[in-house]
Every structure is written in structure tokens, then in C-alpha cells.
Design goal:
- By secondary structure, the chain is α/β, with parallel strands linked by helices.
- The chain has 2 domains: 2-46, no CATH class; 59-241, Rossmann fold (3-Layer(aba) Sandwich).
- It contains 9 helices and 8 strands.
- It has helices at residues 2-29, 37-43, 52-57, 83-86, 100-112, 129-141, 174-182, 204-211, 232-241; strands at residues 65-69, 90-93, 96-99, 115-118, 160-166, 189-196, 216-217, 221-224.
- The strands form 2 sheets. Strands 1, 4, 5, 6, 7 and 8 form a 6-stranded parallel beta sheet that branches.
- Helix 7 links the parallel strand 5 (160-166) and strand 6.
- Helix 5 (100-112) crosses helix 9 (232-241).
- The termini are far apart.
- Bound molecules: flavin mononucleotide.
- Residues 71-73, 88-89, 99-101, 132-133, 136, 166-170, 195-199, 225 line the site of flavin mononucleotide.
Amino acid sequence: MIYKGKIKSILIFLSFMIIVSLFSACADTNNNASISDSAKSSVGTPKGVKTKESDSKKNTKNNKTLIAYFSRIGNAEYKEDVDAVSSASVNLIGSKVYGNAKILADMVQKETGGELFFIKTVDKYPSLYDDTTAKAKKEQEESARPKLANHVKNMASYDTVILIYPIWWGTIPMPVSTFLEEYDFSGKTILPLCTNEGSQLGSSEEDISKLCPNAKLKEGLSVIGSEVNEAEDDVKDWLKESDVTA
Ligand SMILES: Cc1cc2nc3c(=O)[nH]c(=O)nc-3n(C[C@H](O)[C@H](O)[C@H](O)COP(=O)(O)O)c2cc1C
């Protein structure tokens, strides 16, 4: 009887293994399907064998990731002889001028294959740096929502949004607030990536979560403006730790 009982438990275990293997094989052919964490851990994964988890991370390369970025460069009136060019937040690559946020956005794009979206205002900020800081301060005091000139066509199709912005007066620039209020981020994962000159993330994470209470907000990354060009490894590690890339 004990012998029969043992055979029975072995058969039950083997059936369970077959069901789980069939299930995971089906899931392999359907990127949206996945087995539960408990099933995964109870079966275990031999060393060197790709898990479902690493397969599912590849989904980020199927344009389900939106990289929305805001920068002073591209949103300020541009005149060659003003400090829009000489300011610390500007990178000259060849003859082109890039903001720090754009440099980070390109790094994230390279890693994730996501789609880039530039948050652009209808009204430009002044070309002089100090005038922009004054305007931004006033907008913050008034909780302004500057009008945006462009819009994401199908926000519903993205499940992860990497939000890249410079810190303005300790938090997100007001046009980023306009952007966050424009769409329904319920159930979406938001990853804040900011560039700044010392405030780190400031209160930006808190302010993003207030504007998108139903989003899953992951821990943000801060990159000092003058160090954006050396930030590739930090960005890579952060994307991995945040489960965006494998
Ligand atoms: C309006 C304005 C306000 C800023 N406020 C802050 C701040 O509070 N803390 C900080 O560390 N940096 C602040 N900065 C510096 C920018 O965050 C930093 O230079 C950033 O790297 C610029 O990115 P961008 O080139 O993409 O615009 C401010 C810059 C501007 C233009």
C-alpha cells in the first residue's frame, strides 16, 4: 500500500510538471501570458536556462515603452548669441544643441527600444536662462498648466512610461504636470529619470504620484547635468533593477 501511495504521488508530481511545462510552452508563444510566481518558484529553473521572466522583459522592445521627455532645449526661444548655448545644461554634438534630458532619453531608447516623445509647449520659454528660471518660478507659484503643442496618439498601447525631465525649482517642470494630467496612467508603470544641478529628485516623485495616483511608480534615478554623458552604465543598471530590461 505504501509502495502504491508512493507511485501515486510520483505520478501526481509528474503530471504537475507536464502541465506546468505545457503551460510555459504556451506562454512562450504568447508574450502576454505568464505563469504565476509561485508556480515558477516551485518548479525551479535549471542554471543557464532562460526563464519566462527574462523572455517577458523582451516585450519592452516591442514599442510598449514610451520615453516621454521634457527639456529646456527645444522649449526655449533659440538665439545663437545667448546663453541657451553657453549654459551648463547644453551639449553640443557636432553642430547640434542637445539638452541633458535628450541625452538621457537617447540612452534609454537605445536600451529599451521604446518610442520617444518630446513634451513640447505651445509658448516658448525665454532664450535667456535667468528669464526662464523666473518664468518657471512664476508658473510653479501659480500651479500653471502650460499648454502642450503635441500629444501621444495612443497612450493606451503603452504599459511603461519612462518620464525624463530636468528638475525645475525642486520638482517637475509645470509642462510635465500638464502632460501627466492629460492621460490616464492607471495601471501603467512610470519610471522617473531626472537631471539636475544638485537637488537630486527633489519632490518630483511625490508630485508625480499625486498627479497619477493609480500608476505604479518605480524608484527614480537622478543624474547631475554635467555628468549625463557618462551616465550610460547607471541608466542601464537602473533599467535592469526596475525590471524594464533583461
Ligand atoms: C527653470 C529652471 C529651474 C531649475 N531648478 C533647479 C533646481 O531647483 N535644482 C537643481 O538642481 N537644478 C535646477 N535647474 C537645473 C536643471 O535641472 C539642470 O541644468 C538640467 O540638467 C537641465 O536639463 P535640460 O538641459 O534637459 O533642460 C533648473 C534649471 C532651470 C532652467
